[in-house]
């Protein structure tokens, strides 16, 4: 659910309205080069010692600059950014100091800090990884070996079995990673055990604002929140150990495994129980890239993307652009604002943005009534004892109404119940609007039922509020319980109950003749159905530019499982009381789909260690599935129905790891291509690019953002015609011949030249793509370009076009 408190996506919220007008943190970018730049990388990449000397020089230079400009008691420098950006984060207490900084020479740009808040047993098999990938990479335990995934979130619990280091696991073979292990509270030196190869925490901005609480948030990489509530969950999905038993409330739900069990984990804790700040996150990204991670799994994105070109030029987006230039693939959750259009929160083309799908695993439950009728619902709960039917009682009939009828019916106040009346009975509770607005919770309901000595509960929907998606149906429960998800089942239960309850003259219940038993809701059912775009998953198109056109970028890029995902959990988490103390949790959100892609990317990196981030993303996109196993189109959950999914729902499609390992052709892109993209964004000028990245646009600009060499084609404003180019590279060593097949978007004529071509092993070939508008539909339409190889490679490229005016109109 979009509003679920377990969703791992982190939102950026502008602080101007919630901070004091005086004390603030700013991120300041300097004119000089960082350690890794176009001018310095050839020099300092050769020698770690030289790089460290230059890094220290940058930090000292920041201190000298500030000391010469400001009085010592008027500021505190929090960080020196040295690796990807040359700059610093500074905490200042007066507007006078702000003005002094803004007028100083040598400063390229100043950005006010932004507050940030926190936005598998079956999925490896569902994705075909064991037979299609692990088998060819030396087995599950070795798959992903040599690859380090960096997680920037709330920390990690090193004691969890998903992150233990079995005796057969050797040391990290890659010499590229050089991260440190910061010891601290609940994080001893042994926590970095070979599986976890690095762990650090960043909290200087959080401390400066007074939000960090050392008794709650831990001054160490340990996860007190469990968003790791959940590096722990996401890290175990991407790279958790193979075949770890998932035991919750004493019941074994199966065995969990990460996508790449052989990959290593580096943790960068920059978020806490209260959230976090961008300056801390930027410092974490900078450190992760300097340490040498291969992939960053990120749950950071704006809660509301600002319109205009500045969306691509904020400090975090620039930091991630430079991370990509350093060879690090950044995978980011698309957001949980679906099914609303234009709700995408991960928008830059150098980032791989992930949508979420439901899978074929279902947890259903059944209640058998005394009249022989069976009602279906949900609830991962144990059954009532034996095959005995138990009496049913409505909460209002066994409570003191003085507590308030709504509070009584929702079973949120245990003191309202009359204990001797509830003992041994199944209590009917009512799902009201209070549950929708977080004034009531299923977790509280279940805990109350346990504490008052009832046999279990039945949660029905109040027919007065109509059909709705009940929140919290995937919680693991310790007491028998069932949630009736639809109004019809709820009405059938109530009709049976009222007809079998004998009441007195004043309407009080005297005899409870209605009976039922609840079956076991913990047994999974595997339907074999195709993935479906989850309703909460954010949709495209991408952000608006200064001309109110959406960007020529396809977002999201890909889709992976993200609904009801089992993964590791921190027992010390202060999250939902139903999950507290458990080692695994069943969560939903695009933050659950993101580590699936990070793990698959690690498998690809294992096989193709020299591939660029763009090449890995291309391999996953061009081989993704858009149809189910029967050839029918993948569907998407909308507000009231299932509809055919479009590229704005699932990007290039649903991840197919086996085919992604051998994609045939790839679309590559590098830093200079992204700079040309920025320079082509309407409303972005040379000065704004220079302030963002340190240098201006090339003399010969690309005329269109749509020229970026991605594995997709998006044109947000087609007026007449447009000529585009794409360059494909043979990912294999053998020659191959390809034929071009085009399915044209409505209102667009598409011509690709050449229509057939032969490409040498490891060679490249340019394609010219001509789009001609034939009908101004004033809406996006979708098609695809398919490159069909003679050696059974199929490369799919989605096409999304908005025709604003046709030729001759």
TrEMBL record:
Places the protein is found: Secreted
Superkingdom classification of source: Eukaryota
Active-site residues, Swiss-Prot/TrEMBL: 153, 227, 591
Signal peptide: 1-20
CDD domains with a match to the protein in the record: PA_subtilisin_like, Peptidases_S8_3
InterPro entries xref list: Peptidase_S8/S53_dom, Peptidase_S8/S53_dom_sf, Peptidase_S8_Asp-AS, Peptidase_S8_Ser-AS, Peptidase_S8_subtilisin-rel, Peptidases_S8_3, S8pro/Inhibitor_I9, SBT
GO cellular component annotations of the record: extracellular region
Keyword line: Glycoprotein, Hydrolase, Protease, Serine protease, Signal
Molecular function terms, GO-annotated: serine-type endopeptidase activity
Gene3D superfamilies: 2.60.40.2310, 3.50.30.30, Peptidase S8/S53 domain (3.40.50.200)
Family assignment from sequence similarity: Belongs to the peptidase S8 family.
Record GO biological process: proteolysis
Peptidase S8/S53 domain location: 144-653
Protein name: Subtilisin-like protease fibronectin type-III domain-containing protein
Residue ranges occupied by any Inhibitor I9 domain in the UniProt entry: 62-117
The keyword Cytoplasm appears for this protein: no
Hydrolase is among the record's keywords: yes
Alphabetized Pfam families for the sequence: fn3_6 (PF17766), Inhibitor_I9 (PF05922), Peptidase_S8 (PF00082)
Location of the Subtilisin-like protease fibronectin type-III domain: 707-801
Record PROSITE patterns: SUBTILASE, SUBTILASE_ASP, SUBTILASE_SER
């Amino acid at each position: 659910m979009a509003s679920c408190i377990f969703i791992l996506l982190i939102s950026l919220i502008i602080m101007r309205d919630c901070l004091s007008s005086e004390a603030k943190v700013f991120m300041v970018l300097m004119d000089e080069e960082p350690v890794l730049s176009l001018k310095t990388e050839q020099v300092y990449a050769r020698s770690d010692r030289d790089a460290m000397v230059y890094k220290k020089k940058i930090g000292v230079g920041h201190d000298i600059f500030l000391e010469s400009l400001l009085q010592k008691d008027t500021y505190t420098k929090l960080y020196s950014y040295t690796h990807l950006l040359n700059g610093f984060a500074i905490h200042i207490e007066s507007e006078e100091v702000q003005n002094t900084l803004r007028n100083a020479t040598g400063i390229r740009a100043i950005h006010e800090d932004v507050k940030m808040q926190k936005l598998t047993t079956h999925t490896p098999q569902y994705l075909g990884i064991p037979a299609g990938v692990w088998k060819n990479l030396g087995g599950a335990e070795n798959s992903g070996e040599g690859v380090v995934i960096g997680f920037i979130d709330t920390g990690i619990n090193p004691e969890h079995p998903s992150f233990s280091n079995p005796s057969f696991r050797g040391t990290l073979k890659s010499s590229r990673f050089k991260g440190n292990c910061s010891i601290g509270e609940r994080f001893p030196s042994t926590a970095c055990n070979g599986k976890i190869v690095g762990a650090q925490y960043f909290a200087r901005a959080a401390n400066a604002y007074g939000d960090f609480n050392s008794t709650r948030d831990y001054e160490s990489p340990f996860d007190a929140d469990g968003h790791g509530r959940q590096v722990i969950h996401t890290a175990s999905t991407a790279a958790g150990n193979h075949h770890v038993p998932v035991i919750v409330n004493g019941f074994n739900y199966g065995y969990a495994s990460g996508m790449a069990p052989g990959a290593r984990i580096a943790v960068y804790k920059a978020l806490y129980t209260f959230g976090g700040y961008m300056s801390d996150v930027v410092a974490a990204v900078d450190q992760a890239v300097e340490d040498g991670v291969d992939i960053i799994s990120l749950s950071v994105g704006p809660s509301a993307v600002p319109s205009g070109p500045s969306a691509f030029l904020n400090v975090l987006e620039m930091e991630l652009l430079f991370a990509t230039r350093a060879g690090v693939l950044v995978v980011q959750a698309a957001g949980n604002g679906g099914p609303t259009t234009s709700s995408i929160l991960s928008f830059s083309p150098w980032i791989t943005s992930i949508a979420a799908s439901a899978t074929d695993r279902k947890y259903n439950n059944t209640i058998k009534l005394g009249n022989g009728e069976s009602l279906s619902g949900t609830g991962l709960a144990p059954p009532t004892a034996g095959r005995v039917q138990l009496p049913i009682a409505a909460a209002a009939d066994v409570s003191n109404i003085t507590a308030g009828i709504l509070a009584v019916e929702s079973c949120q106040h245990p003191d309202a119940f009359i204990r001797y009346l509830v003992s041994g009975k199944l209590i009917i509770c009512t799902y009201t609007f209070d549950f929708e607005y977080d004034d009531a919770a299923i977790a509280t309901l279940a805990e109350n039922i346990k504490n008052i000595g009832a046999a279990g509960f039945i949660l029905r929907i109040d027919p007065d509020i109509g059909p709705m998606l009940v929140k919290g149906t995937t919680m693991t429960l310790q007491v028998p319980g069932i949630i009736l998800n639809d109004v019809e089942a709820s009405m059938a239960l109530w009709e049976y109950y009222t007809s079998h309850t004998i009441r007195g003259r004043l309407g009080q219940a005297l005899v409870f003749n209605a009976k039922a038993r609840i079956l076991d809701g913990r047994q999974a059912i595997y339907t074999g159905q195709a993935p479906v775009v989850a309703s909460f998953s954010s949709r495209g198109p991408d952000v608006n530019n200064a001309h109110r056109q959406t960007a020529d970028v396809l977002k999201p890029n890909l889709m992976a499982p993200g609904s009801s995902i089992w993964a590791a959990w921190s027992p010390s988490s202060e999250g939902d009381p139903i999950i507290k103390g458990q080692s695994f949790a069943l969560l939903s959100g695009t933050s659950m789909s993101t580590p699936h892609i990070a793990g698959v990317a690690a498998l690809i990196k294992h096989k193709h260690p020299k591939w660029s981030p763009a090449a890995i993303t291309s391999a996953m996109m061009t081989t993704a599935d858009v149809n189910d196993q029967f050839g029918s189109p993948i569907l998407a959950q909308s507000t009231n129905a299932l509809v055919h999914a479009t590229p704005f729902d699932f990007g290039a499609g649903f991840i197919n790891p086996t085919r992604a390992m051998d994609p045939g052709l790839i679309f590559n892109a590098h830093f200079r291509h992204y700079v040309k993209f920025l320079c082509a964004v309407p409303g972005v000028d040379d000065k704004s690019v220079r302030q963002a990245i340190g240098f201006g646009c090339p003399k010969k600009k690309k005329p269109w953002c749509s020229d970026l060499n991605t594995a997709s084609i998006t044109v947000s404003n087609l007026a007449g015609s447009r000529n585009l180019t794409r360059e494909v590279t043979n990912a294999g060593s053998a020659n191959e011949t390809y034929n071009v097949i085009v399915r044209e978007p409505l209102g667009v004529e598409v011509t690709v030249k050449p229509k057939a071509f032969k490409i040498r092993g490891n060679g490249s070939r340019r394609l010219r793509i001509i789009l001609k508008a034939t009908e101004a539909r004033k809406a996006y339409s979708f098609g695809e370009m398919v490159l069909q190889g003679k050696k059974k490679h199929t490369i799919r490229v989605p096409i999304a076009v908005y025709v604003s005016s046709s030729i001759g109109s």
